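Appendix B. One record, verbatim.
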Amino acid sequence: MARLFTFLFVFMVLGLAAPASAERVRDLGSFQSVRSNQLTGYGIVVGLDGTGDDNFAYLTQAMKGVSGRFGLQLPAGVNPALKNAAAVVVTADLPAFAKPGQQIDVTISAMGKAKSLRGGALILTPLYGADGQIYAMAQGNLAVGGLGVSGQDGSKLTVNVPTVGRIPGGASVERAVATGFETAPVLRWNLARADFLTAARVRDAINARYPGMAQVEDGVTLALALPDGADRRATLMAEIEMLQVDPAEAAAKVVVNSRTGTVVISSAVRLKPAAISHGSLVVRIEENPTVVQPAPFSQGQTTVEPDSSIAVDSPEGQRVTLFEPGASLAEVVDALNLLGASPADLVAILEALKQAGSLQAEMQVI
């Protein structure tokens, strides 16, 4: 198992050591106005087979409101305690440039004590944006991938998550989001990750094709002076997105996942002169209790006597590895594998190198 972990570690770090290649501008970032918007709504799912909410105050209030819209007034003080309905939160992403009449997918999640939404149907629900305006209306039958069953003795079986479902194309867009795409004097393009060198290279690539169009505002944003008119802007933006750029090499970083023991080293990691001695001390403790029987007719009691054995093994031929100045990632990997380091040992070695000032990289533990 340790050899398998070491192989996976070498595979990951060697993959990171591959030389950088040119990438399209569209893969490095996106235009500021071309983005989706989050929508949220509160609704009711009905038609459940006894798996809905039971005496949930929010559901009762919502059901009274729904029935009131259809002319059915529930008497004051009456609690329907409906188990065939459930209060849900409806979420959706409104794509960029979505127009009224288009269909978008919605996700429905139970917010009360409902056990399953399988077989339910969402009642007409408005979806609101961050500004409090209605941008879509959702309704339809749920598609639930989970399943939950229970027995009278309390036993339960759950497959996936039965309290979350989706309605493909279940919401109709009612309002478009103004982006200023056609009239904004300047359109901004944002890098997915801040990097001044990459931003400068994208600017140079754009200006080489369209002189004087792009300017760097900071490590993330470029300001593009585009001509007015949606058709001309769309054509230029399509051409800009397909330009090839060599992104800057990623910063030297070592990422350690403390939960899984995964260690990833970026290709920019370098080491100052250092010597590492790695050895493992194996301590084995074995318990062999002995049962002692009393002599016949002695009125004694049977007892258990502990019998412990302790063994300490220290491997011979412990190795010391010397790193020359500026050792590269491949040399680091070869040396650590020569030492026979496991993923847990790798973390300890890298932390020690960082404390000694030999590791020229940022240690990030997740």
